[in-house]
Amino acid sequence: MSTKRKTVLIVDDDEATRERLAAMLAREYRVLSASSGEAALALLTRESAELVLVDVRLPGISGLEVLKIVRENYPLTEVIMVSAESDVESAVQAMKHGAYHYVTKDVSDAALVTLAGHAGEHQDLNRQVLALSAQVAEAEREFVVGPSAAMHEVVELAHKIAKLSATVLILGESGTGKELLARLIHREGERPGAPFITANLAAIPRELVESTLFGHEKGSFTGAHRQHLGKFELASGGTLFLDEIGDLRADLQSKLLRAIQEGEIERVGGTKAIKTEFRLIAATHVDLDRAVKEGRFREDLFYRINVVPIRLPPLRERPEDIPELAQFFLRRHTTRFRKPMEGISDSAMAVLRSYFWPGNIRELENVIERLVAVSDKEWITEEDLPLEYQVTRLEPGGRDRASLLQRAAATFERNFILKALEKSGWNVTATARHLGVPLSTLKHKIDKLEIRPLARRLRGD
């Protein structure tokens, strides 16, 4: 990615001073100039400037007033105050109102260029802080890959295209890890330290989508009390991840297309085009081919984002990945909750592997997190799993319907007895008394329902 030159606006009523300062900075910066504060503020509504050099004493609006207005309306723009003579009081007031520095007009070429460079670095740091705060609050999460061939093909393709600037479209059901794959591509790219900005278009209120993506100017609508940078500007030089792009409003699809094709956007309420450069990764669970045919998604936008399509298979299509994913989530949440758990039993893992997982990896993690949170045991066993997960294993498999009903009832009864035994400290006599059945009946059911692996824990009075 090329790095565009920053823009400096010089504001001084003396033409000779404007020309001299411009000559100092012209090699490193794009230079604009204005002879008054009013002209400078009007120019800023049409042009973006990263740095403003403003004379303290100006006809009309003073330099300090220009400083206050710029800092209020353009918070990322740095301001250096310039004065014909050193004035401690003016310098103090300037710094108090947010000036980056204060210099006299006899400043040397080298000193001014260095100062402007430092101001630019300070601005870049502020932009990075904004970008980081716009990212998800949680720490960057690992993209876990199991042994399935399908996922290894996905990761191989991701590594192959990561260092290219090509737009990527990630397809897959909700919960399959589309954002984590996008983060992997970003980390493996040319600029892993650059911003990674996310926007879930399905989660943003409809009336705020445009402002969230493109930003807005102060006063552009009710509640717009100050200028706001959108996701496109925050992602400048980095990666923009647009999740659930299939849900983007039709009227905003054309603005997105322009941003991709022309590399420029326009804030809500703005009148000037703003150049922005980013790597786009989009994702959706929607069938975009069908959406295009039904007129819900622009065909030209679809072809623009469908440069490198990557399909993430649902978890039910790769059950061989479930054990590794489950163990990974177990380690994550035992560490988080500070619980010394050993692992997941084979029978419990068999249940997890047989489940349909409509919520995919997200659902699997949520289940493991819940089990770790409520358990005080060393192992997660079959009886710890919610009943709906166990019932999925009760497919007919060639047996008749009566047998299926019997197996469902036996599963419920087995888990009910296991929980009662656990509650009674594995005392069979106390459990029988609690359940209101004869001791002989309970022992018969323990044998019939194959609770033998736990027999060493069973005890009488």
Question: What's a quick, concise take on this entry?
Answer:
With 461 residues, this protein is α/β, with parallel strands linked by helices.
> What would the principal axes of the Cα set say about the shape?
elongated
Number of domains: 4
Number of discrete helical segments? 19
CATH class of the largest domain: Alpha Beta
Helix content: 40-55%
CATH topology group of the largest domain = Rossmann fold
Record field, number of beta strands: 14
In percent terms, what proportion of residues is strand?
5-15%
Major sheet: size, sense and barrel closure?
5 strands, parallel
Descriptive account of the structure:
The protein is of the alpha/beta class and 461 residues long. The protein folds into four domains: 7-128, 3-Layer(aba) Sandwich (Rossmann fold); 149-313, Rossmann fold; 316-384, Helicase, Ruva Protein, domain 3 (Orthogonal Bundle), CATH 1.10.8; 394-461, Orthogonal Bundle (Arc Repressor Mutant, subunit A), CATH 1.10.10. Helix content is 46%, strand content 12%. The chain contains 19 helices and 14 strands. It has helices at 15-25, 37-44, 63-73, 88-96, 109-134, 149-161, 178-187, 209-214, 231-234, 250-262, 288-293, 299-305, 322-337, 346-354, 360-374, 387-391, 401-423, 428-435, 439-448; strands at 7-11, 30-34, 51-55, 78-83, 101-104, 168-171, 196-200, 239-243, 264-265, 274-275, 279-284, 308-311, 343-344, 379-380. Strands 2-1-3-4-5 form a five-stranded parallel β-sheet, sandwiched between helices. A five-stranded parallel β-sheet has the order 7-8-11-6-12. Helix 1 links the parallel strand 1 (7-11) and strand 2. Helix 2 (37-44) packs parallel to helix 3 (63-73) and helix 13 packs across helix 15 (360-374). The protein is elongated, with a radius of gyration of 32 Å. The relative contact order is 0.07. Mean pLDDT is 85; it is low at 134-140, 396-402 and 453-457.
